[in-house]
Amino acid sequence: MKRLFLFSTFLLFLFSFVLADELYEVNYNVIPLPKEVKTDPSKKVFFMLKEGMGISYDKSNAECTRIAQFLQEWTKEVAGLNLQLTPDDKSARIQLRLVSPAAPKGKKSKKPVTLTEQEKERYTMKVTDKGIELTAYEPVGLFRAAQTLRKCLPERPDLGMMPYVEITDQPRFVYRGVMLDCARHFFSVEFVKQYIDVMALHGCNQFHWHLTEDQGWRFEVKALPDLAKKGSVREKTVIGPSRMRIYDNIPYGGYYTQEECREIVKYAAERYINVVPEIDMPGHMQSALHVFPNLGCTGGPYVVAPHWGVMREVLCGGNPETLEFLKTVFGELCDVFPSPYIHIGGDECPKERWQKCPKCQAKIKELGLTTENVKVEGGDDRGSQDGRSAENKLQSYINHEIEQFLAARGRSLIGWDEILAGGLSEGAIVMSWRGTKGGVAAAKQKHRVIMSPNVFAYIDHPQLKDYGKQPRTTDSYVVSCSKIYSFEPLVPEELSGEEGDYILGVQTNLWTEQVAYPEHALYQLLPRLASMCEVQWCKPEQKDFEDWKKRLPQLKKLYDKMGLVYCNEVE
To answer: What is the three-class DSSP state of 146?
Structure first.
């Protein structure tokens, strides 16, 4: 009987050990998928992450210190483990180190190695018997490494067996953007910070902040105090489909002070995200016209638009006060936002008023602008005239003036692909939203391009075919996770290798006509950002949607830890 008891105990122990081996083993199935993950499945060797272990870093480097603090917070959040900050401790089991890039093999040079923007984000994560080592050339790379480790951490303190691994990674594209429209609906500073945190988790580095619209002006301009105070408030908001014109009759408003904008910029920079502000012009300006009716072609009166759509009331292209106004606004914008990119919109600017406006027609004559019967690539214009009309050229004149103004401040202008219509300004960057044709045309003209085609990148649209399973939103077509994942930004059949170099990257956009609350915004964003981030980060040969779906549950557990709302179905 004693032998039987001992044998049973041994079997129970053996079964428990096998079960533990399955439960305790951490995996590296993270999103976005790293460039290279080396493990040896034949060797069952692990490092056990434990309470109280130290995180070593260079305390003389403020960025390394901050990244170590982030990692400490994330480990507590995800695994419930309290790690210690032990700067410059070579015996610590978690090491964060900056290393110098080596010169290419066979070449010796005393000059420092010049890194590409992608190489600046390059990192290595090693797990060995000594512990966990994160190395990078620059702090941004260490931050990416710490995020990868965060996504590998065990859910519970007793599930900490990490197989030995060597991960080497860097992003595919320089520009990996996400846009949030805070003009149609206003979101708090706290939510904007949460949105930035979600972006950082997915390896994104450009936060496109849409700040002005017909329906509300959200950026404080100190030289024009009434612009935000009055232009931010609409007297009512359309309920349901805009075409039905049923309103709630409740005033709606809100704007960001310059101090709040600087707070957001700092918060994002600490997470290696650049904030790209957008002031949309010369269309989508009815909120400004409400405050300054002299800037319109008819003189008004104008109201802050209570419904959605393309408005025919735009800034007067022939009024010299228009450029004065824009330079005042963009001057203060540059003071607040250090971004190398400033977005001017430039989309959906109907020319109906300009065609009949004496000032606009006089300016067209003064500049010697004429209509050319030229087909301009870029898709359905939705409010702009097709071809190089004199009025489109007048818009290009305004764009060029603002581009020169921004260039004098060391900034590059970004505009939606409608800016192609009247001829591109020299250094303009095209954000191609009406498909990819505008981006292809701009790249062939040797202009930098950000691909953001609506059918792949507009996440205000439903993500599931069954509309009844999700909150109501823009409903003209479905942008599913699989649809996003299938997108290839370089359009290889149309762009040569050299032309493809002008594609800076990819951006996904959340417009908020039908998205009024943070929970809804997060639902629209997730998990679709997990799909888009692999388009932004991974090379085509790495991508596999079925494999991505297998990796998604691990990321969803982290969403839960962070208290994020997301769509639980994937199509």
So the answer is: helix
Residue 382 has pLDDT above 60, yes or no: no
Tokens at 463, concatenated: 């993500």
State phi, psi for 305 to the nearest 5 degrees: -60, 130
pLDDT winner (highest mean) among 21-25, 100-104, 376-380, 552-556: 552-556
- DSSP-assigned letters across all residues of 79-116: H----EE-TT-TT-SEEEEE-PPPPPTT---SSPPPPP
Measure the CA angle with vertex 161, ends 160 and 162; round to 5°.
105
pLDDT category of residue 387 using cuts at 50, 70 and 90: low
Q: Assess contact for 182 and 155: CB atoms under 8 A.
A: no
371-375 contacts, C-beta under 8 A, 24 or more apart: none
| Backbone φ, ψ for residue 346 (5° rounding) | 85, 5
Determine contact, residues 212/183, Cβ cutoff 8 Å.
yes
Helices (H), 429-564: 437-444, 454-457, 481-485, 497-500, 518-525, 528-537, 545-562
Half-sphere exposure of 257 (CA within 13 A, CB side): 3
Domains annotated on the chain, with CATH: 23-101+116-169 (3.30.379.10), 175-562 (3.20.20.80)
H or E stretch covering 165 = strand 165-169
Give dist(CA 488, CA 491) in Å, integer: 6
Question: What are 180's strand-pairing partners?
Answer: 209, 510
CB distance 66 to 567 below 8 Å = no
Nearest to 270 by CA among 139, 411, 78: 139
Which tokens in the block code for residue 443? 């790249």
Distance in Å from the first CA to the final CA of the chain: 57
Cβ pair 275, 339 in contact under 8 A: yes
108 pLDDT tier (thresholds 50, 70, 90): low
How many Cβ atoms are within 10 Å of 270's Cβ, its own excluded? 15
- Whole-number pLDDT of residue 103: 59
pLDDT > 80? residue 15: no
Q: How far apart are CA 153 and CA 78, in angstroms?
A: 7
Tell whether the torsion through CA atoms of 255, 287, 248 and 509 is positive or negative: negative
Q: With contact defined as beta carbons under 8 Å apart, do 414 and 274 qualify?
A: no
Q: Tell me the Cα Rg of the chain.
A: 26
Write down the pLDDT at residue 200: 98
Residues 6+ apart with CB under 8 A from 554: 27, 29, 30, 31, 151
**DSSP label at residue 167:** E
Percent of the chain with pLDDT over 70: 91
Split at pLDDT 50, 70, 90, the class of 8 is very low
Question: Which pair of structure tokens corresponds to residue 227?
Answer: 């612009």
Task: Check if the beta carbon of residue 297 is closer than 8 Å to that of residue 362.
Answer: no
Please give the average per-residue pLDDT across 45-70, as a whole number: 95
Written as one letter, the residue type at 23 is L
